[in-house]
Specification:
heterodimer, A: alpha+beta, MetI-like fold, 2 domains, 13 helices, elongated, B: alpha/beta, Rossmann fold, six-stranded mixed β-sheet, four-stranded antiparallel β-sheet, 10 helices
Chain lengths: 368, 276
């Protein structure tokens, strides 16, 4: 008889996950987004606070391979923008000037930055000739002439990490409190249960506002960042804690847990070696599905001006600029950070779905 | 033959409902005591209370370890740990009693790690030896429980219970979930391990034929009470209690032409003065 290959539960789950096409696409997009967020200083052509006084509220520029005569250029380029003031409306209007093209160069020297706040660098992935008059604003500029593309990338770092850090904290609180409640029972269980009910019954928005008001305005951006994360997780842990508690209650009587206790395993061993691993997949799924809620929470807080504040750049802070009607009509490209939020949230949800299916031993491999 | 276990006046109730009512019995070394009774008669609660998987309400469980007698329920968890080596349990459901996330190697090694026995290499050898003892292939060690059949899993459960070289093994309906041919294999295995290692079994079952085959003495339980106790011959040939007669009358005969005629439960139990 030929040797049969033995699959571990982890390998089985991975096999199933790979067949979930949407989840694979989502995973790919998220890896892409996080890579961008990690290397945002290098990838963005400008720094987030750099102003271009010649392009204020400029629309997104098209990156072209074909020039006005229809000739193909191997090196992509952008056309210069010509500013005119509309004499009737006094609005700035930008027109492409096909006579001046700025070719895009890679690994150009540009505005110096501190990579990860650690070492100085000035190379950017792409830009136009930094010594010439040209500029490239792929996503347009805002009312101060700052490059929206660069700001979206810097915002990705804050917005995407706040979701993960926040969920980490949520998981910690949820598993710890829910786990103890389910395992110990008694007074501790009742206390956690009542606390959960109170927290779940308070409308979140006013509470967020109250807590944000408690964050001192003098705090540095980084402390505010952690403050906001803690606020978000303080309300996020309740659902997870309930699930964990329920699982623990049910599993405490499970034969293999009793068996572990009978061979002499102490509480710590029973919990960490036997109980937690058997629903770790559930925890991972819940965590994945909780990340978008965190990101949306941060966006909502920042949008309302009570979360992160400029000069911190996050997607929520960026959207704050697009709060009024005028902006939406005249400079709709300022809404682009919103598109990134949508993509991220959908990707996390699809990834969570895929993980849930993969971790479920009852979903068949043959499906899909 | 010395006494190994002595249970006196053990009581346990759940939410006011009395499940085990003042049960007392003794168990001699290297013997097999069967505990029979219908479902809900308190067999499992009784043995789990003995193992301290459940805390009983009152009563004492005394165990004669290698170091002398111990009252199991007055021991702290730390003091209980060395005794856990001597008293082990084989579960009813071989599918639920093995952690699905662990390989057989990890499952069998864990008791040794907890009790600090041997180093990595010697533990591996011990696991291999144990697998051989329960007639499983040595390649089983690297597999997960889901790769095994019910009978094979029960062998893994037996291996886990025996790897600590216990003296008393509690079998809680350990063959009830298996089909008849596998049942016979597992019973044979348990019997040969008993003669090899001098084990004492506390054998919970509802199948009287299995008990007749396997046990030396029988304890008949009905709604939390021990109604009769005696050797297998006494109980099966000359039952004293009506409930025992009722149980015996419910054993189907291997002859298909012979009709099963269970006794009338109500009249019998009323005669016995037991409430239904």
């Amino acid at each position: 008889m030929s040797e049969l290959r033995e699959l571990t539960p982890g390998q089985l789950a991975w096999l199933k996950f790979r067949r979930h096409r949407l989840a694979m696409i989502a995973a790919g997009s998220l890896i892409f987004l996080y890579t961008i967020a990690i290397f945002c200083e290098f990838i963005s052509p400008y720094t987030p606070e750099q102003r271009n006084s010649r392009a204020i509220n400029a629309p997104p520029m098209d990156v072209r391979f074909f020039d006005a005569e229809g000739q193909f250029n191997f090196r992509p380029f952008v056309y210069d923008l010509e500013l005119t003031i509309n004499p009737d409306t006094w609005m700035r209007e930008y027109e492409e000037d096909a006579s001046t093209a700025y070719p895009i160069r890679f690994f150009t020297r540009g505005e110096p930055y501190e990579f990860w706040g650690l070492f100085e660098a000035e190379r950017h992935l792409f830009s136009v000739d930094p010594n010439g008059p040209g500029y490239i604003h792929w996503f347009g500029t805002d009312s101060l002439g700052r490059d929206v593309f660069s700001r979206v990338l810097y915002g990705a770092r804050v917005s995407l990490s706040i979701g993960v850090v926040g969920v980490g904290l949520t998981l910690f609180l949820g598993v710890l409190l829910g786990g103890f409640a389910g395992y110990l029972g008694g007074i501790f269980d009742s206390a956690v249960q009542r606390m959960t009910e109170v927290l779940q019954s308070i409308p979140t928005l006013p509470l967020w506002m109250a807590l944000s008001a408690a964050l001192p305005a003098a705090w540095s951006p980084i402390t505010t960042y952690f403050g906001v994360t803690i606020i978000l997780s303080l309300f996020g842990w309740t659902t997870l804690a309930r699930q964990v508690r329920g699982r623990f209650l049910a599993m405490r009587e499970e034969d293999f847990v009793v068996a572990a206790r009978l061979i002499g395993a102490n509480d710590q061993r029973v919990v960490f070696r036997h109980m937690l691993p058997s629903f770790s997949s559930h925890i991972i799924t819940t965590a994945t599905l909780a990340v978008p809620a965190m990101i949306l929470g941060e966006t909502a807080l920042s949008f309302l001006g009570i979360g992160l504040r400029a000069p911190v750049v996050s997607w929520g802070v960026l959207l704050q600029q697009a709060q009024n009607y005028q902006v939406i009509v005249m400079t709709p490209w300022l809404l682009l950070p919103g598109a990134f939020i949508v993509v991220t949230v959908i990707a996390f949800n699809l990834l969570g779905d895929g993980l849930r299916d993969a971790a479920d031993p009852y979903s068949s491999l043959r499906q899909q | 033959m010395s006494q190994l276990l002595s249970v006196t006046d053990l009581c346990k109730s759940f939410a006011g409902e009395s499940v085990v009512k003042s049960v007392s019995f003794e168990l001699n070394e290297s013997s097999t005591l069967g505990i029979v009774g219908e479902s809900g008669s308190g067999k499992t609660t009784l043995v789990r209370s003995i193992l301290r998987a459940i805390e009983p309400d009152s009563g004492t469980v005394r165990y004669n370890s290698r170091e002398g007698w111990h009252d199991l329920h007055s021991l702290s968890p730390k003091e209980l740990l060395p005794l856990r080596r001597e008293i082990q349990m084989i579960f009813q459901d071989p599918f639920a009693s093995l952690n699905p996330r662990m390989t057989v190697q990890t499952i069998l090694e864990e008791p040794l790690i907890i009790h600090g026995i041997g180093d990595k290499e010697s533990r591996k050898q011990q696991v291999a030896k144990m697998l051989e003892k329960v007639q499983l292939d040595s390649s089983s060690a690297s597999r997960f429980p889901h790769a095994f059949s019910g009978g094979q899993r029960q062998r893994i459960g037996i291996a886990r219970a025996l790897i600590l070289e216990p003296r008393l093994v509690v079998c809680d309906e350990s063959v009830s979930a298996l089909d008849v041919s596998v049942q016979a294999q597992i019973l044979d295995l348990l019997a040969s391990l008993q003669s090899e290692l001098g084990l004492t079994y506390l054998f919970v079952a509802h199948d009287l034929r299995v008990v007749r085959e396997f046990c030396d003495d029988v304890l008949v339980m009905y709604s939390g009470n021990v109604v009769e106790r005696g050797s297998v011959e006494e109980i099966f040939n000359n039952p004293q209690h009506d409930y025992t007669r009722l149980l015996l009358s419910a054993i189907p005969s291997p002859d298909p032409d012979e009709k099963l005629q269970p006794l009338d439960r109500k009249s019998l139990l009323l005669d016995a003065g037991l409430t239904v």
